Amino acid sequence: MADRQCILCGACMAVCPLLRATGREELSPRAKSDLNRLLAEGAADLSGDAVARLAGLCLGCHRCKAVCPQGVDVPEVVAQLRAAHPDFRRWLWKTWLTHAGTLWPAGSAAAKAVPEGLAPEKFGPSLRMLAGLSGGPGLTPLLEPVKFPDSCRGERMLLFAGCTATYVRKRWADTARRLLDGLGVEVLAADFGCCGSGLSAVGLSAEAGVLAERNLAAWRAAGRPRVAVFCASCLEGLRAYRPDDSAEAEAWRKALTPLSIVLHDIEFVVSPHATSAIGYHHPCHAPEPDPDLALLRRALGDRMVAATGKECCGFGGVMRLGAPELSATVNAGCWAALQGAELVLTGCSACATQLAATAPAGVTAGHWLELIA
Amino acid sequence: MNQYAPSLTEAHRRFLTDLFPGEGCLLSAEGRAAFSADSSRCRAMPWAVVRPERREQVVELLRWAEAEHMPLYPRARGTCQVGNAVPALGGVVVSLLRLDRILDVDPDDFVAVVEPGVVTADLQAVCAKKKLFYPPDPASVKMSTVIGNASTCAGGLRAVKYGVTRDWVLGLEAVLPGGRVLRAGGRMHKDVVGLDLTRLFIGACGKLGLITEMTVKLIPLPEASASVLAGFADLSSCMEGARAVFRAGLLPAACEFMDANVLEAVRRIDDVPLPEATRAALLFKVDGTAEGVRAETERLCAALRPLSPVGVTVGTGAEEEAVWTVRRRISPATFQIKPNKVAEDIAVPRSRVGEAVERAHLIGEEHGLPVLCYGHLGDGNLHVSIMHDVSVPGEAEAAERAKNAVFRLAIELGGTISGEHGTGLTKAAFVPEQLGAASIALMDAIKANFDPSGIMNPGKAW
Q1: CATH number, domain containing residue A190
Q2: What is the pTM of this model?
Q3: Which residue in A125, B72, B220, B244 has a CA-CA distance of 20 to 30 Å to B201?
Q4: How confident is the model at residue B95 (pLDDT cuts 50, 70, 90)?
Q5: Mean pLDDT score of chain A, rounded to an integer?
């Protein structure tokens, strides 16, 4: 299906958060795929770099791909355009270097994690950590696990923590390990690296391929067990791997498991100090139906008062560098949908950092793992 | 013949960028390209694109355009199937997506006041929160806008019970060429004073003026609904089944039809909850109070029984959506038959739908192409998909000939070449055949009173 052409039906326009927030049709997925075709057909007076620049204004949320009757993957089209136009790459690096200092406050955890020389393979993980990483210690725990079911007892499992939890929010990974331990899961050691999705999105597919191979090798070495993942974007990045062997590809897809599914039957007690106005942000990359939301609904009950559906947090990967004002417009729409919530939870490292950095006064935001004692 | 500005001069560019600063005016090729085509895939590059955010900008723009004889093309989401949003003769596209506020939803007057760029499903969602209902539901309801629906007089599944967009617009504000502001109708559900200028704009495809605000009628939101999918062994008992339902005194909210070719196509990508022997199917929806829906569903099933349907599935509550899957899968499924499609939306008197389907299949056979028929049987609106493969020599031409034959069939049966998509560019050649010279001359004369220089959406058929 992937090679089928866009038929300009416009189904993608129903779900594109960027179009919704800006009213700019030239930023819709349909416009981008059509523009790419016009460029390929050699339409007069179109410059490849200008096309790559415009089409590059994409949040990479993949909502359009999910509804496309033709199976067109616009973020992939965008990534290919970026890769094919070296001027765009030069522009990207220049912008990156110009903004790195302001995006990462000196002394923050992220600033310390900035790789010397900004080597390309560090670019993707760094992107994930751009927003809000100076945002303090995180949320106050309000949920205490009191009863663990036996459903996974004795299972050997891997935990894919991702860059943010590995370098900055170590608490997420610690909590995840503690919960898995409570369930009686044996968490195996594994030499995982970045999932690579940030690199693929900016057209650095060769570099992303190296990371994919490394992570697959780590999984093979551990005996191909289930891999628990607690970041929706990492999960989608990992699901995009295509091992050559089709049986292995199927096994890989089956092995990848949202951590919230593994934790679903744990019983939690809610702290009496917990706010009764909790919101949930559904990450663009989260599976449907969203298992994180199911876990939180079960644990928090009617304390959950607001949830996003169509809205994107506005993180948008590399787009945030080139067009921070667009990112801010999208982000404002997200907070409007979360109105009334004093505490906002989510299940994606990019969303969590973006929301923590942009929360209105009196509102706190973070990954739902921060809520668990 | 109208004389239009031949291109955009430097002074024109200056005017537009002053009136629409920043990203409000697009002049770059890559920026304009998105506005060159709509869902018809017809294409022509505009010279500029502007994005008004206030009515005053629209007034100023139309004053200038009239003076300069500059063609203007109002556009919202550009999901038109027939090329109405394509800037066919060059000029300026006016994107209305930033005029997208819902100004009022009034549970006492039962009206909503909206700007043109509001997405129809968004309006419905806001109304539903107040237990109010705006019924028009074209298939594009989640992606198209109230202005697009009004300009094409969009119909949809529920038209059989609730009518089309025309039946729900009570009033509007429009800016006419030269900058005159027209206010027609209002919040009254009854108003017989004067000619109905509001309705003149509905289905006029932006050829009279630029609508900047609409007042639409609302009704209470039905509290419940249920759906019934019924399969039949042949086409005639299927048509008889639909007739029996209406004769039983029922007015379903939707009455959809699918022929054997459609069912076969859907089976290739999904399960169809009907036996293999099914050669035609009906899909009904009833809505209203919970008690009423229960009673109507029972009566509907009873009315179908004498026709010996080969399968009946009733969907209520959470399962209702599942019976609609087959209908929703039609569009992607058609491409399982052949990679290219000519899709037309003729409408004929309800009693002649069966004949129309049989003869459309014959047209397909004569041209060596599969023809799939489905659609809104309740209002005689039939979607005829002529499947072909442009990479096979001669098939594209055969599809074109078959399309023309389908149009002639519609007219011969006392019907219309378009029930809801409009005519735009793709059906322009057939409009005189249906309307006749005298009607077209009257329509042109009416238009000239609104738009003397013919700058509003030129190059399109009535």
Answers
A1: 1.20.1050
A2: 0.89
A3: B220
A4: very high
A5: 85
Do residues B198 and B95 make contact, with C-beta atoms less than 8 angstroms apart?
no
- Fold agreement (B10-97, B102-220): no
State the Cα torsion B40-B45-B46-B49 to the nearest 10°.
80
Tell me the pLDDT band of A99, cut-offs 50, 70 and 90.
low
Q: Name the minimum distance, in Å, from the CA of A33 to any CA of chain B.
A: 10
A117 by Cβ neighbours in 10 Å (0-12 / 13-18 / 19+) ranks as exposed
C-beta atoms of A24 and B140 within 8 A = no
Q: Domain coordinates of chain B in residue numbers? A: 10-97, 102-220, 224-331, 337-422
Q: Can you give the residue range of the structural domain that contains A164? A: 143-262
B39 touches chain A (CB under 8 A): yes
User: What CATH number matches the domain at B337-422, 3.40.190.10, 3.40.640.10, 2.30.29.30, 3.30.70.2740?
Assistant: 3.30.70.2740
User: Does the CB of B35 have a partner CB in chain A at under 8 Å?
Assistant: yes
Same domain, A150 and A232: yes
CA distance B140 to chain A (A): 8
* Per-residue pLDDT at A118: 45
End-to-end CA distance of chain A: 46
Residue A366: its H or E element: strand A364-367
Mean pLDDT of chain B: 96
Interchain CB contact of B29 with A (< 8 Å): yes
pLDDT in tens, B416-462: 999 999 999 999 999 999 999 999 999 999 999 999 999 999 999 99
Q: Which of A14, A46, A69 lies closest to B30 in CB terms?
A: A46
Nearest to A38 among B28, B33, B95 (CB): B33
Sign of dihedral through CA atoms A349, A351, A353, A355?
negative
